[in-house]
Amino acid sequence: MGSHFFDGANPKRHDIEPDIGPDGIAFETERGALAWRYGDLIRLWDYRPAAHLAFTHKRHQDSRLIIEETWATESIGRYAPQLIDRGSERWRQTGIGAAVAAGILALIAGLYFFVPPVMDRLARAMPWSFEAADRPDLDALAFMIGERCTAERPNEILRGLVGGLLRTAEFPHPITVDVTSSRMVNALTFAGGRIVLLRGLIERARSPNELAAVIGHEIGHVVHRDHTERWMRQNALGAVSILLFGFDGTSTIGQTVFETGLSLSFSRDSEQDADRYALRLLNRLDLDPSGGAEFFERMKAKGNISSLLPDYFSTHPNSDGRAVFFREQGTGTRQALTPEDWLILKRICDRTD
Ligand SMILES: [Zn+2]
Q1: For 82-133, how does the pLDDT look when each residue is reduced to its tens digit (9 = 90+)?
Q2: 138 CB burial (10 A radius; 0-12, 13-18, 19+)
Q3: The domain 4-84 is classified under which CATH number: 2.60.40, 2.30.29, 1.10.3470, 1.10.10?
């Protein structure tokens, strides 16, 4: 009896005296010295009696090392408990699982807190040409938001209003603002500095300053490069979610929740930034912002907001806070247009032919 070894090539039993070290088990056979590291050992758990430890080697799986002496099994237990106690091996794996889960949570938390500001800066550093190439034609958008409203004098007045805001914005690239014939109440910003106000919004607005607040908000999206940022975010999220959830062509619920959660949390930030930007423009131009505040309250009370298209109203769940923000932080006193010009501007979608 005693510890012994089979080399796997022939059935001869080699009696050995194991030398148990911190890194592995060393022993002499007639054919030379061997040193098996614990990391290379595979415990054969079904070997009986269980008090004797039977091992094979990862690279020599026909060989067998049987340790019988109690002192030796105790020493191995101290250096490599996972080889003695199956429970501890399971615990070790559970520990690894927990560590991986914690790592994924940390990564998600990192995405929430770390990626948005980085993306934001990256997006603003991207050349404008990158986004300008994606600027859509109004014709291509007509199926969604109607035709451009062309009444001449109202468009002139609109250009005057927008021009004042843009001069204050001092953005170095062109930004255009058009009105289209859709009756939905919304304002949209497309890539490359294209802002579109829908007819429904013009009709519901009760003062030129309400309109100026909305346009200022959309200019904020352009200046902050929110389009580029959204594009970058969507692509980055795709990559990260493939890493985390694997790619099998179908989207799991976890993945969907993950992506939606992230994109919502980002866009709420850029909406707030756009509001702050709009208010800065109004303040610099000395425009009274209280009209803007009332607009938000009215729209909210009506619950009559198009969620078909993204942006101005559909992405602002909290119109209350917005109204308060404009009222409390606004310092201006002027109206953006004379009452006469405002009435003319409201007829921008009337046919002139
Ligand atoms: Zn917005």
Answers
A1: 888 887 667 777 888 888 888 877 777 776 666 667 777 888 888 898 888 8
A2: middle
A3: 2.30.29
pTM for the model stands at 0.62
Quote the distance between the C-alpha of residue 292 and its chain's center: 31
Residue found under tokens 């959830």: 245
Q: How many angstroms does the Cα of residue 226 sit away from the middle of ligand 1?
A: 9
Ligand 1 centre from 348 Cα, in Å?
23
Cα(347) to centroid(ligand 1), Å: 25
**In this structure, are residues 262 and 112 in contact, taking their beta carbons and an 8 Å threshold?**
yes
Q: How far is the CA of 28 from the centre of ligand 1 (A)?
A: 77
Q: How many A from CA of 341 to the centre of ligand 1?
A: 26
**Nearest C-alpha neighbor of 289 from the set 179, 225, 223, 215:** 215
Q: How far is the centre of ligand 1, averaged over its atoms, from the C-alpha of 274 (Å)?
A: 6
Q: How far is the centre of ligand 1, averaged over its atoms, from the C-alpha of 65 (Å)?
A: 70
Name the burial class of residue 27, with classes exposed (0-12), middle (13-18) and buried (19+) by CB atoms within 10 angstroms of its CB.
Answer: buried
Please state the domain extents for the chain: 4-84, 116-345
CB 325 within 8 A of CB 316: no
Task: Report the separation in Å between the CA atom of 268 and the middle of ligand 1, taken as the mean of its atom positions.
Answer: 9
